[in-house]
Design goal:
Blueprint lengths: L7 H11 L9 H7 L4 H29 L4 H26 L4 H6 L4 H16 L2 H30 L7 H7 L3 H12 L13 H21 L1
Helix pairs in contact: 1-7, 1-9, 2-7, 3-4, 3-6, 4-8, 4-9, 6-10, 7-8, 7-9, 7-10
């Protein structure tokens, strides 16, 4: 299949497959599944996510603005803004299950290895072409959603967390057909240009995003 005849769905599928993380790229999730990850690591995940959500939400707002009102990319990034808001609403129950107090949350100093991901998303918000960024994020979400599903299951079986406490992870693990449709439209709005600034750049962006994603989990595993 030539690049000229590839559909947006083809591009997303190929990029997601190419960026699928190796089994040993994430050292924390297997520890959670085994029930050997300390509560401090679970709490750290919550604390880092609070910072990440705030940063990513602003980055997605900027990407929506840069995309132009009424465009497919603006619709996609606007949905991501809403998603981050909903995720933040669900984070509190998980923080409470980890024993975190408002004081502990307010005093927490985020780790550089965990915040590399949102820092790069912020860079993409300023410098990336929106269709390419949409492709990179969509490919990365496939891995993130899979990790969240595994964590949610393990928190219930290994740590006795309630459904409410696992709601943050369930949110990202669940299907999102409308967002998937928006992602296809956003990617389709860009050119399939291997060397230019079309969606061909998305694989490059996605590779770095996935690297920073692994860094996030592994920093927590080593803490």
């Amino acid at each position: 299949m030539t690049r000229q005849t590839r559909t947006a769905k083809d591009i997303i599928a190929a990029t997601s497959t190419a960026l699928t993380p190796a089994a040993d790229d994430n050292r924390l999730v297997p520890l959670i599944e085994a029930g050997t990850a300390p509560l401090s690591a679970l709490a750290g995940l919550a604390l880092e996510q609070r910072h990440i959500i705030a940063s990513d939400r602003r980055a997605f707002e900027l990407l929506a603005e840069r995309s132009g009102k009424g465009t497919a990319c603006a619709e996609f990034f606007g949905s991501l803004v809403v998603g981050e808001t909903l995720a933040l609403e669900r984070l509190g129950a998980y923080e409470s299950a980890c024993g975190l107090t408002p004081q502990a949350i307010g005093q927490y100093e985020p780790k550089a290895g965990c915040q590399a991901y949102p820092a790069y998303v912020a860079w993409l918000a300023l410098n990336g072409e929106p269709p390419s960024v949409a492709l990179a994020l969509t490919a990365n979400f496939a891995a993130w959603g899979g990790y969240c599903a595994r964590v949610a299951a393990a928190l219930r079986t290994r740590y006795g967390f309630t459904d409410q406490a696992c709601g943050f992870f369930d949110f990202f693990a669940g299907p999102a057909p409308e967002l998937e449709q928006q992602a296809v439209a956003a990617v389709a709005s860009g050119s399939d240009d291997e060397h230019g600034e079309g969606v061909g750049s998305g694989a490059h962006y996605g590779r770095l995003l996935q690297t920073y994603e692994s860094m996030f989990w592994n920093t927590l595993a080593e803490a």
